[in-house]
Amino acid sequence: MDESSPHLDSLSPQRFPVVVVGAGPAGLTVGNILRAAGLGCLVLETESREFIERRPRAGVLEEWAVRGLERRGLARNLLERAGLHTACEFRFDGERYRFSYQELTGSHHWVYPQPLLVTDLVREYADVRGGAVRFGVRDVRLHGLDGDRPSVSYVCPETGRREVVSCDFVAGCDGARGVTRAALAPERARVARHDYGIGWLALLAEAPPSADCVLFGCHPDGFAGQMPRSPEVTRYYLQCPPGDDPDDWPHERVWAQLRRRLGAAGAAPLTEGRLVEKRVLDMHDYVTEPMVFGRLFLAGDAAHLVAPIAAKGMNLALHDAFLLGDALVARLAGGDGSGLAGYSGACLRRVWDYQEFSQWLSELYHGTAAGDPFRAGTTLARLRRLFSSPAAAAAFAEQYLGTADRY
């Protein structure tokens, strides 16, 4: 970050009440909330519109997140096209155990791939609500965040000139490697990090799901998961060493391990298909506290990362965006700054709760493969308890669905 005064190559600096850095779910949701209130906003994105609308990412949405989008007029396509999931299935000790969380709680999950949500949000923001957006910008810099006249500058891809945008607030929604996160860490905030010491081979297969729900295979050889994305495409995960080379996982090895780790009595055989994506994710989490510095407010992965173990990342990004968008509207339209003052604390309560659940769930997924008979035994005890204790089942369902009333 460069907080010094920018070199003004642009003849007349622009002004917007809010500059949003990053056009992912968080940034576009904040932008849409501002535009719905009639407030000016500029979204800056280093990638092209085509790229962000195709970038493969998460797909599981909790019901509260969908209802939040719906209340803001951002869920029409989602409600028409998303899959509704009411149960998941654990496979361990060669058996299948179905966990019907809708029967237990009345709540469910939605499955809607992030590229589709981003496509909906950017169309609503730019094409319907007339929001300003610049794609393909380079060398974004933040200036004067600790004063009352912040600004953001960037290099225009068409002209090569540095443009300057003055604003009242900056929303940092540009992810883990973005410039806004660097503005808070490490000298201005505490960054807490946790490494799980495992990797997941993330796979996208051109194949229909082999079951009607999410599958969790807890196997001595390592975890395996199936996450349906559409009737034609399925996301799979395989536990592997961190830093493993995806090229060491050819088609035959992948499907052999998936069959082994997801195998169970009475289970239908896996439907194989072409693997269109293979990448290794090193499982880690981080949380930045506070999520605010001066006029900069972080949201989504710019502030915190939760490993895909519990499928919470996109939900946390939307939670941040709802709170930040509403707080900015209250401040800019009505002079009420209480929402911005309490923003970081309100976000972090949910963030830490989801991080704790991710850690707990990691042991459930990976404990049987730890090479430690004691851990394997306690993990199997936890798994069996989910299906023998109503109290344990209710506690798991509450966290799995994000339905705790304290939110």
TrEMBL record:
GO terms of molecular function: 4-hydroxybenzoate 3-monooxygenase activity
Entry keyword annotation includes Ligase: no
Domain FAD-binding: 16-357
A family per Pfam: FAD_binding_3
Keywords noted in UniProt: FAD, Flavoprotein, Oxidoreductase
Top class in the EC scheme: oxidoreductase
Protein name: 4-hydroxybenzoate 3-monooxygenase
Organism of derivation: Streptomyces atrovirens
